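Supplementary material to the annual report.
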Amino acid sequence: MDVLRIPSVSTDPEHKADMVRQAEWIRARLERAGAPVADIVPTAGHPLVIGRWNVNDDKPTVLIYGHYDVQPADPLELWETPPFEPSIRDGYVYARGSADMKANLVATIQAVEALAAQYGQPPVNLIFLYEGEEEVGSSNLYAYLAEHGGDVACDIVISADSGFPAVDVPGFFVALKGMCGCQIDIKTGETDLHSGGYGAAVPNANQVLAQLAATFHDDEGRVAIEGFYDRVAELTESDRAEIVQASAVQQDVIAESGAYALWGEPGYSPAERIYGRPTLDINGMWGGFTGEGAKTVTPCEAHIKITCRLVPDQDPMEILELIEAHVRKNLSPGVQASFQRKQGIAYPYTIPRDNWALQRAASVISDLYAASPVFFRVGGSVPVTSEFKRYLDVETVSLGFFQPGTPIHAPNEWFRLNDLPMAQRGYAAVIEALGE
Amino acid sequence: MDVLRIPSVSTDPEHKADMVRQAEWIRARLERAGAPVADIVPTAGHPLVIGRWNVNDDKPTVLIYGHYDVQPADPLELWETPPFEPSIRDGYVYARGSADMKANLVATIQAVEALAAQYGQPPVNLIFLYEGEEEVGSSNLYAYLAEHGGDVACDIVISADSGFPAVDVPGFFVALKGMCGCQIDIKTGETDLHSGGYGAAVPNANQVLAQLAATFHDDEGRVAIEGFYDRVAELTESDRAEIVQASAVQQDVIAESGAYALWGEPGYSPAERIYGRPTLDINGMWGGFTGEGAKTVTPCEAHIKITCRLVPDQDPMEILELIEAHVRKNLSPGVQASFQRKQGIAYPYTIPRDNWALQRAASVISDLYAASPVFFRVGGSVPVTSEFKRYLDVETVSLGFFQPGTPIHAPNEWFRLNDLPMAQRGYAAVIEALGE
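Predicted assembly:
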């Protein structure tokens, strides 16, 4: 429970000392579990905690990934009990960071501790890599991987930053979308103008932007950026079957969306669109007078923020270039556009379903729960998986034990107490299987 | 000068007493000029000042229109001398309301006073109608015209709320655009959604709005609302000639616009577009996340504010209905749109160029300045002219004497002192001509 008392809010500079305390807590816990190496590794931001436990050069090396930072707890008034004073009620512990992801993190250490107690040492070589900046983009982890990737070379990554696809249904994240985005600023002149005096004879930046934004999709819902789909790996029959299977147990995201209608790329089911097809979203758009009442202005500036969710084998940097080329091609003469690329791109990631580690992990989780684990995809982006692929050239098995429904970035986040020993047993079983 | 010392700012409730003082000042000035009737007429807002001077039932009745309210003086720090302490420098008087339009207003009274002194009484029957709410929409004047129009029945209106089309070039406003507008609120669902979890499968309100807004114009710049041009009186050869003639002396609005390019309806010159063709402007547009950085949201709401500038014989109410029908027709299923109509519509107005009063006025102004006055149009809207047409069924001759370049709604507004006696002589000559 102590781990839940430290407010390791990575985004808030006031918690800088708490981040150090939290890192030290984990380092000490690793040491207590028996890890021969357990270090705090400073970065430009919050420190990494890196542990090592080499047992046998003939055994595979498994890197266990997690993060010890948490989302801010605001709005505080909506918490039934204080976010950093863990409260147990009816078999659940309520605390910020309980599900995302301190319970899983501690369970990985407990699992190794238990294996070492049972066999004298772990059954594989282990690297523990816990970062403190997942909630703020992981840029210093990536910098570390870029510079010191060789120090954490491994055969497989187990990411504990995950949860169950449905209540009491275990599963593995097998595909995550990539992401890129930009803000486009349109300028048609040096100053906003009176619509009566000028509106008929000069471009209106809002109109230019609307007409431009309307070219991003075709009438049916396909992204109409030239080249956007060129590298997309078409969904196979087995991909479609996997999505159907996962959808059968996953929450009905559409029903709970509050949307009045479905929409999207023709030829694909809503689940296929969300889990298997790339998208372009207009996250924000603004220009001219947006206050109460009316102002008869012909604005000279308008702005749009877009992000794309990407699938294999799209390249986020290339997609940004395609978008910029599309915009330049579609601009009228005398209209200026500038581009600000969003920080924190993500490459799409998918683990081959026949990956040795995934198969062994699935097998032991199946035994543990007496139920086949679900291979499920998320529409969101967890860039660390693709970054491990990029820098370490290894696949990542994503396995975590929080139940869906816990409000991981909202008040009253919880973790079910019974899931903690199951998580420990689950991670131990997987690590043991990887050593066989 | 006293008239310029009263801060008659109609929009500011703190100046309510000043508005009454200003109205009383004008009433007293009318009385001093000899008007047999000079009344303060209360309204739901600031009072009207109404004077009457009937001389002979065989003579035409001329209504002189003006307004005694002024724009706020902010930003005060940009005034070289205080806005309500008139300062004379190099032949100009600097004060808020000097050009717009206290000098003209006083000149109309002086003109009548001079005519009465010369001939014993004015050469026509006169109604003086001065309002205190022109800068805030004139709604109480319109209410008065709707209810008591018969009390101010007349043969012609002279509006003194005008200026010269070019420095030292006299002229008459002959056409003013109408206006209507609305805000359209698009809703695609009950809540903003995570673009990864939902973006591929539900409508994005920003995208819906952009695609909708892009249908307002065709690719070449015509308004593409069905029926929009149906009632537009096509520009005749003489209209085009008039616009060319006026453009030759008017300021080059395009050159000073700061716009990087021209734009607009094909088949018409920029001046023809501004002065003779209707337009639709997107004044404001917004939806989703518009702050710093990125937020991967699929928004459920987006908003747009539009106004149209209209020409004869378009009807603003009908145009609003056409826009709403266009929007409804172009919405995808499951997208909701609501409409808020802008307050203060304006009908387009144009005075027939062969109107007897306009012709006589042009003739005497030509003599006074030894130069042909210019018939010029404005792209903006001065609704009072069309309201006189609507409620009193009379035409309005717009004649005023401020020079272009004076910042009528900005700091350091000025009126050239030499223009005051010219204004008085000009109004007197026109009134005299109308009595012949």
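Chain A is about 30% helix and 20% strand.
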